[in-house]
Amino acid sequence: MDVLLAILGQFGLYGLLTVGIAVIFAATRVVNLAQGDLAMCGAYAAATLTGAPFGTRTLIALVAGVPVLLLVERLLLRGAVLDGLAAMLVTWGLGMALRQGAELVFTGTARTVAVPVEGTVDVLGSPYPAYRLVCALTASAVVVLVLVLARRTGWGLTLRAVADNPDMAAVLGTDPRRLRTLAFVAGGLLAVLAGALYSPVLAVSPGMGFNLLVPVFFGLLLSRPGALGTAAGAALFVSALSVLLRTWLSDTLAEALFYAVVVAIAALRSRPWIGRFSAWFRRPSPAAAGAA
Amino acid sequence: MVPSSLPRSRGRGLMRAPRTAALALAGALVLVPALSACQGAAVSDDTPAADGPVRIGVVVPLTGPVSQVGTALRNGLELAVKKVNAEGGVGGRPVEYVVVDDAGDPANSTQLARRLIRQEKVTMLFGTITGDTAEAVGKVADEAKVPFGTAILGDTEHCFPYQWGFGESTRQMLAPAVPALIAKYGTKVALVGSDYNYPRFYAGIAEQLVKDAGGTVVAREFSPLGQTDWQPVVKRLSAAKPDLVLSMVVGADAVTFSKQAQQFGLLTPRLGYEGAPLDADFYPALAPLVEGRTHTVRWSDGVEDAESRAFADSYRSAYDWKAPIPEVAGNAYFGVRFFLGAAAKAGSTDPKAVNEAIGAFRYDSPLGEGTRFHPSNHVLQADMRDVTIGAGGAYKVTKTHPMVADETPKKGCS
């Protein structure tokens, strides 16, 4: 039970970040390397606005995040979006600017956020910190909500259409620019939410988001562009792999094995026969065939 | 429409790139001879001017993850130099210092240390926070035969003839603390650390001292730096049912580990807890978890000595400081004064002569009566103190261990 709860806890964090980065990637074909640093901003909002209750702080972070993300997308990514690599470098620069900015404003010393829900709860015989459970469940619920939205709404359909073939989607009357803006803001907000929600269990420091980037990047690597379900699945896989390895082995060995397994899977996936095999299981489309 | 615009915009980019590159190259071609001419002039004589000021080269991280500690070290040093200059300098010579920011990256530290020696002609080097940057500067200092002082706690297995540490050595911090903690909390000890050289070195010495004090090590855990999920580690530690946890989990991880250990019910007031997370730097983040605990340090701002109090007061007013003053600032303050005292004794700005004087120097300061370096390991033989962490971040001295010796020989110096 302990292990399942640990996986759930880890999935809440990685899931929000990975689905967020996948939404952005689907619409813009840009790996948002500032995703972790946006989470750091959310965490600092929770750590500094201590006058308000925790829920309000999270809401403030999200509301304040919207215009900032809009501005970033308009000013920095609009021109660069035509070239994926340039845009990725822009997000890298944005991440660095956020880290340095946080260091200037809040100094490099780590801060903590008081846990909003004290105590432990009994989950099928295993005592577990109550807040961890609350935040893991909240985060998972948000991930599920995003998946449902992507499946059931017009926005989700457009997102999938643009992810599959942006030119065709544009010809058919979708405005890819609007979608890109919307996706960047939505994906960024998921990161801000992840940072704010998990701030009471982590140390809030300027570098905290950067540490989260690697597992999230692996999640994106193992998912299929445009298919947010696979991103959530990949985040679950990354969380489970990391927790299981660390439960059975020492942390050092577990980390080395974790990287080895993820890299092996990524390498195997690029083999043509695996691509052909997995293509059996999905609707053939030109973009998907290209990605495989 | 969209596809046609793609190649065009790329084409423009390609056109621009070579032009910029060409301009940069032309600029570089003009600048390089000029720069090398300057350097040539500087390289011809590395030794400081015999009748000039005493110059200290300070390599510290002022940006990056350990910038806060680096800044504290710089502040301590700055106040020490001010004080020495106010008292007439070193044998009548004024003291100057040049601060460079290595951002905690050993590649930067090496280059910056070389530049300080060659261009700034410093008599001594001081600074660095992390072990890898200290080693980088230590090597440069050894090659150039310029004394180099550090102020951060902890030591390494190796000793460099030109490197001197003012922070407490691992044995000095653990030897007085371990028997007392075992007597107070119990004999079962768990060791936990970030996974790099120093915490493993710390754990090795801790294990020996725990055995000597009649305790047993029931768990040893190391986790990579930047760990966000400590649940598996905390569960394994809890399963071993320790009475005492010695932690060398460092940086922001110290905060994450302590918080999660408390959330999972390991870190309770009944459990003994000592190590890096109790340092003054972490107090603002961990106050409720560390208050009431005892921490063994070389210096704290609670040291009741006139000179130490004067330093703490000047630090608070000069830097508008309200939190507990980091230990490294005090170690740097008294460390630099030790170095400058030795330089005065040497009566010269020649780095080699100053290094010899440092090895033989004895200095009375709040760190101890007649503090000196042991020749076989370059560890400062000085006092240690038990401080009890009180409300509001008062690191009050509750016991002084006079002259805690660490004479274990190390390769490189013995």
How would you portray this structure in words?
The complex is a heterodimer of chains A (292) and B (414). Chain A has one domain (2-291): ABC transporter involved in vitamin B12 uptake, BtuC (Orthogonal Bundle), CATH 1.10.3470. Helix content of chain A is 76%, strand content 3%. Chain A is built from 13 helices and 2 strands. Chain A has helices spanning 2-28, 35-48, 54-80, 84-106, 130-152, 154-164, 166-171, 176-198, 208-221, 228-248, 251-269, 272-279, 286-291, and strands at 120-123, 126-129. In chain A, helix 2 (35-48) runs parallel beside helix 4, helix 9 (208-221) packs across helix 10 and helix 10 (228-248) packs antiparallel against helix 11 (251-269). Chain B is an alpha/beta fold and 414 residues long. Chain B folds into 2 domains: 54-168 and 301-383, Response regulator (Rossmann fold), CATH 3.40.50; 174-297, Rossmann fold (3-Layer(aba) Sandwich), CATH 3.40.50.2300. Helix content of chain B is 47%, strand content 20%. In chain B, the strands form 3 sheets. Chain B has a 5-stranded parallel β-sheet, sandwiched between helices. In chain B, strand 1, helix 2 and strand 2 (95-101) form a beta-alpha-beta unit. Chain B starts with a helix and ends in a 10-residue tail after the last strand. Classes of the chains: A mainly alpha (292), B alpha/beta (414). Chains A and B meet through helix 1, helix 4, helix 7, helix 9 and helix 10 of A and helix 1, strand 7, helix 7, helix 8 and helix 9 of B.
Task: Describe this protein with a few key phrases.
heterodimer; A: 292 residues; mainly alpha; ABC transporter involved in vitamin B12 uptake, BtuC; globular; disordered C terminus; B: 414 residues; Rossmann fold; 5-stranded parallel beta sheet; 5-stranded antiparallel beta sheet; 20% strand; disordered N terminus
